[in-house]
Design brief:
CATH class of the largest domain: Mainly Alpha
Helix content: 40-55%
CATH architecture of the largest domain: Alpha Horseshoe
Strand content: 5-15%
Number of strands: 8
Length: 478
């Protein structure tokens, strides 16, 4: 565990009892149970549990920000805080007149959190490998768990930085800076890590040597957690396919989908919603859902969601719109930075609402993407119609095998938009398919002109600590 050293010169800040008992010219060593070292964790099974729990807690900690940030970029949402206009300008205007985001501004999230968690992944992998108390199966189970979290965190990073690349290596010494690598290298690392994790999980026996929270009910053994691993790999491979990976990556996505928890016959809401999620609770030390309707009253839905929705046969809107969107008192961004909206989200109605990590509905739509890309247009259309009818209450589309691929893709993206609304996909999907120019720019004249960001910047703080070292500088990099 981490040791905090206090010399006699700093003991004056401690209470009198501590002064009498501990102050001397010698150092006072106090273990910090919240930051266990590899050596301590290998000797303490309880520390292994704390580390695994910590990975999931930190993974959850960034989920709300990821959804909110990508939602603003993808014109799904606004964050109309009355006294803080930078929650709008930082994402939609950036540095005025330059069409670029400020690397020292508000839109530089999804960086420190994932890399902090990746450091803990590194420590957990080392602790498991060095443990003398874990069996070979338990070591494999722990490694597979850690590598799955590693792949997912890096996927969050590269899906927001894209062509800027990212850092994939975690050094033993946290002060040593690893190099940035290209987008292509990041995706290859993610997929290899997830594949390694899947192999570990397959050899991981019947149970983890630690407990996984209730959001993973049904995915809390090495065998079932592997289904989650393959689902993440399917998403990563699809992202890579549209970022240079091509046909091989699409086939990789299809293979991963087959090995995942995808249910190809799902039609009911319960079946479509199957998948791991982040739970929340009001218990002491826990957290509330950061996007809940009760307290997240500054989050508004973009009016284009209402304008673009398709209607059912009875002329009522798509069921996904009706279930997820509700009326709010009209509000505009402060200082004329955005346009008015009178729509809010009903997706997370309570403080304790779970936020999904990945759901069966997404897996089906990823399969539709992959089938279209690999020449099975009829298969892609069949999935689209399955989702339209089962999730949206819409009539089947008029698409046929003779329809242009672009029209089928448009229909897939429509369904991804409403099926996965405010789950962190719209902006990424539109960029993947070269359609960012189809996202609305709400203000096009005057001093607060909006633009559609292609990537989030590398934070300026990251650039500063890398003075003299290679960092991305093109576009909105450092």
């Amino acid at each position: 565990m981490k040791t905090i050293s206090l010399s006699y010169r700093t003991c004056g800040a401690l209470g009198a009892a501590v002064l009498l008992a501990a102050c001397s010219a010698d150092k006072l060593d106090i273990t910090n149970p919240n930051t266990p070292t590899v050596a301590a964790a290998t000797a303490d099974p309880q520390a292994l549990l704390l580390q695994a729990t910590g990975l999931l807690r930190q993974l959850r900690g960034g989920r709300g920000a990821f959804i909110s940030n990508t939602g603003i970029f993808g014109r799904e949402s606004y964050n109309y805080t009355p006294q803080e206009g930078r929650n709008t300008s930082g994402f939609l205007i950036g540095i005025s007149g330059q069409n670029r985001l400020d690397p020292a501004g508000f839109a530089v999230g999804i960086w420190a959190g994932p890399y902090g968690n990746l450091r803990d992944v590194f420590n957990l992998k080392n602790a498991a490998a060095a443990s003398g108390s874990l069996t070979a199966e338990q070591k494999n189970a722990t490694q597979g768990f850690a590598k799955t979290i590693e792949g997912l965190e890096l996927l969050y990073v590269i899906s927001t930085r894209d062509t800027l690349g990212a850092v994939v290596e975690i050094k033993q010494n946290a002060s040593d800076l690893a190099a940035f690598v290209s987008r292509d290298s990041v995706y290859k690392y993610i997929l290899a890590t997830l594949d390694d994790g899947a192999a570990n999980l397959a050899a991981g026996g019947s149970a983890f040597p630690f407990t996984i929270h209730a959001g993973f009910t049904g995915f809390n053994s090495p065998t079932t957690f592997r289904l989650f691993n393959r689902a993440v790999a399917a998403r990563a491979a699809a992202y890579y396919a549209t970022s240079g990976g091509g046909a091989a990556a699409w086939q990789r996505s299809l293979t991963a989908l087959t090995a995942s928890f995808m249910n190809t016959t799902a039609t009911t809401r319960a079946q479509l919603d199957v998948g791991p999620s982040h739970p929340y609770s009001p218990a002491p030390g826990d957290a509330n859902n950061p996007l809940n309707v009760v307290t997240a009253t500054d989050i508004y839905a973009h009016e284009s969601i209402r304008a673009d929705v398709q209607n059912k046969a009875n002329a009522q809107p798509d069921d996904r719109y009706t279930a997820k969107i509700g009326a709010r008192p009209a509000r505009n961004a402060p200082q004329g930075l955005g346009i008015s909206s009178s729509l809010g989200f009903n997706i997370f109605p309570a403080l304790t609402s779970n936020i999904p990590i990945i759901r069966n509905e997404e897996l089906l739509l990823l399969r539709a993407e992959a089938l279209l890309a690999t020449g099975d247009k009829a298969g892609a259309i069949a999935i689209v119609n399955q989702i339209r009818v089962g999730s949206g209450g819409l009539a089947p589309s008029a698409l046929t095998a003779a329809s242009p691929d672009a029209d089928v893709l448009t229909e897939i993206l429509y369904n991804k938009r409403y099926s996965l609304l405010m789950e962190g996909h719209r902006w990424i999907d539109m960029r993947r398919y070269g359609r960012l120019n189809q996202l609305p720019r709400d203000i096009t004249t005057g001093v607060n002109v909006h633009f559609v960001a292609r990537v989030m910047p590398i934070p300026q703080s990251e650039c500063l600590v890398r003075a003299g070292k290679p960092v991305p500088i093109a576009g909105p990099g450092c």
